[in-house]
């Protein structure tokens, strides 16, 4: 029995799109905003759906996280328009400022989290705002025509913030 999972399941079970809603809500209410294996197993069993179906949902939608996430998420677009406008150097800047190393992290190549759990850096295929390339998102906020200088200022402001603010 798990209080959080039970209350979320009770809220949505039987409603249209229940599985997606339950997964979203459990992720939102879980520390470090992710779905662990225990949660997926519990949800599958109590929603009475095959575990394979739960996995196909969480792997299909990019907003589901299967690993703990940092307090702030920086998403760098790596689509063609952003690439030609310099998104790779911007990604390198973010990684360097946060002391993250793609080759040492051992994580998949699209998500890196600092060891203090303050920042997660991810890439995305396209934000759908190619005319404004290069595009970066910090948490829910989109920044267009990003430059190294603007990015450095943004990151410094975030790094200066108190934990969990
Ligand atoms: S390629 Fe970056 S917004 Fe489309």
Structural class comes to alpha+beta
DSSP summary: helix tally: 8
Low-confidence stretches: none
Bound molecules: FE2/S2 (inorganic) cluster
Q: How many DSSP-defined strands? A: 5
Q: Kindly state the mean pLDDT as a whole number?
A: 92
The Rg value, from CA coordinates, equals 18 Å
Largest sheet: 5 strands, mixed
What percentage of the residues does DSSP assign to strands (E)? 5-15%
Helix content: 40-55%
Strand order of the largest sheet: 2-3-1-4-5
Secondary-structure element order, N to C: HHHHEHHHEEEEH
Gross morphology is elongated
Q: What is the terminal-to-terminal distance?
A: 32 Å
Would you write up a description of this structure?
This protein has eight helices and five strands. Helix content is 46%, strand content 13%. Strands 2-3-1-4-5 form a five-stranded mixed β-sheet, covered by helices on one side. The chain has helices at residues 3-12, 18-29, 37-47, 51-60, 80-84, 87-97, 102-105, 148-160, and strands spanning 72-77, 111-113, 119-124, 136-138, 141-143. The chain is an alpha+beta fold and 165 residues long. The protein is elongated, with a radius of gyration of 18 Å. Bound molecules: FE2/S2 (inorganic) cluster (FES). FE2/S2 (inorganic) cluster binds next to α5.
């Amino acid at each position: 029995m798990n209080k959080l999972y039970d209350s979320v399941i009770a809220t949505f079970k039987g409603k249209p799109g229940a599985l997606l809603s339950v997964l979203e809500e459990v992720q939102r209410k879980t520390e470090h905003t992710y779905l662990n294996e225990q949660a997926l197993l519990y949800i599958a069993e109590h929603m009475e759906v095959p575990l394979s179906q739960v996995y196909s949902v969480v792997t299909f939608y990019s907003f589901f996280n299967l690993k703990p996430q940092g307090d702030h998420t920086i998403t760098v677009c790596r689509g063609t328009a952003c690439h030609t406008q310099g998104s790779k150097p911007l990604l390198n800047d973010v990684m360097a400022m946060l002391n993250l190393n793609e080759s040492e992290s051992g994580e998949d190549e699209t998500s890196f989290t600092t060891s203090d759990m303050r920042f997660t850096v991810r890439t995305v295929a396209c934000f759908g705002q190619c005319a404004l390339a290069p595009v970066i998102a910090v948490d829910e906020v989109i920044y267009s025509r990003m430059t190294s200088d603007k990015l450095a200022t943004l990151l410094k402001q975030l790094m200066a913030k108190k934990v969990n603010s």
